[in-house]
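=== Structure Prediction Worksheet ===
Name of assembly: unnamed complex
Input type: mixed (protein and possibly other molecules)
Chain count: two
Listed entries:
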Amino acid sequence: MNAVRIAWRVTRLNFRAQLEYRTEFLLMIAIGAIWQVSVIVFATVLLTRFTGMGGWDSSEVLLIPATRMLAHGLFVLFLGRVHGSGRQIQEGRIDIYLTRPMPVHRQLQLEFFPTNAIGDLTVAVGLMVGALSRSQLDWTPGRVSYLIAAIIGGMFLEAALFTAVTCAALRFPAADYWSRWLEELLGTFGSYPLNVLPKAVGGLLTYGLPLAFVAYFPAAVLTGHAHDTGAPYWLAALSPLVGVAAYLGSRVLWRWSLRHYAGING
Amino acid sequence: MAVLHAWRAARVTPLGELHAPPRMTAVLVRLVVQVILVASLWHGLYSHAGTTAGLSEGQAVTYAVLAVLASRLRELDQYAGRDTVLQHMHFGTIVYWYLRPLPPQRYHALRALGEQVYGFAWALGGYLVCLAAGVVDPPKSAAVAGVFALSLLLGQVVLYNVMLLLDQLCFWTVRNNAAMLILIFAQNLLSGVYAPLWFFPDWFITLSGFLPFQATLSVPLSIYIGRIPLSDAGAQLAIQAGWAVALTLFTRFLWRRAARRVMSQGG
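=== Predicted Assembly ===
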């Protein structure tokens, strides 16, 4: 309880710190929104030019970027500081965190308030409302619950991927380079049906980099396309749990990596 | 002697990269995977469609793959080198740029030149491999190849000046990360990195025609794939050259103004 109170107080202070530079604060909200709009622009252009993408109609396809963007917005808000934390490792800030009486991971997450998450979530909620209003599906309590679980699972899966990159950065600081690519891959290839890609490439984005579990598989289950994904139905249906399991695994990896962290001076 | 100094400044970033094999390996893996993914995506999209927005499957794939390769021209991890204007402004070390016998604007240009030449080597290597593998189509004629090369060069001058404007912004703003991200986004969207501009609505294409971003990438690539015929290329090259000259003059003006804002030891 005390830890939650401290985290809340630090977050409030971080938020006030962000407000110190008002223009920067507003611009950071704008940049969150703009990055998300770029995904919408790309998806809209493709949907307009190539109708019936991978056998999905446009209202079904919209559910994929909406789910992914909402999961991404929540990730940025709650767990996103792990992305780009390689810079903190390079600057030796982890060494300072190790001397404080708070878990290093929590200190990392409380480093600053992610103002851009406000913009991210605003656009994501707007897109989700648009996707649901265009959807032909019968939104039963079961479907709604599954969608919520998928969004939370997607948030954890994204957090797991970035945590794994940060673990690598603890050993090889230059590994932070991969986090930017990962973000780019999630933004582009996570936003439409992967069955437009050749099977080998789709398999790579499922079993190599589990990008398909963030939004594509959950949307496929909801829209009835799960049998055409090339993966077993049960695996696609378990996407939310895959996200949670991956995050728990990444935290185990984090603890192991931190134990073996040698710091700048060895 | 001046040439020697120029050579030494230009090779700083490429040398840093050559001494970091893991980073080069990462760049290679990323480039290969990105080319495969992008080519697969556009082939997949065209599998049930014919010519779209005036682009055939071959043209669209070639455009998208060349855009990936061209992105290597200015994508070095400058931040890791601790020599970006933003970092120098943050730590107050920008003043050292003004204490050297080399003017800061020339140092900045030489560093960028080295980076772009190094990036070009990557892009050219990737292009030759993609050409040999049949991933991209060759230019229709030697004339197209020549005009494309000229247009690419002009595009790089425009791109350098656009990126320089972002750097120069640091002299006027205490924190400018958001503004930089917004401009980088505009550059990517309006130059056709996300998707060829030909796929966008007419109003969007018209709007981008009034901005310099499309001169950096969309114009040279459109010339290469034949979406801009050689008969129209002259006008496009003139627009590119116009942007290159206007932006160069503007950034030179800003360098002079920026020098007045540099403080040492707080005053």
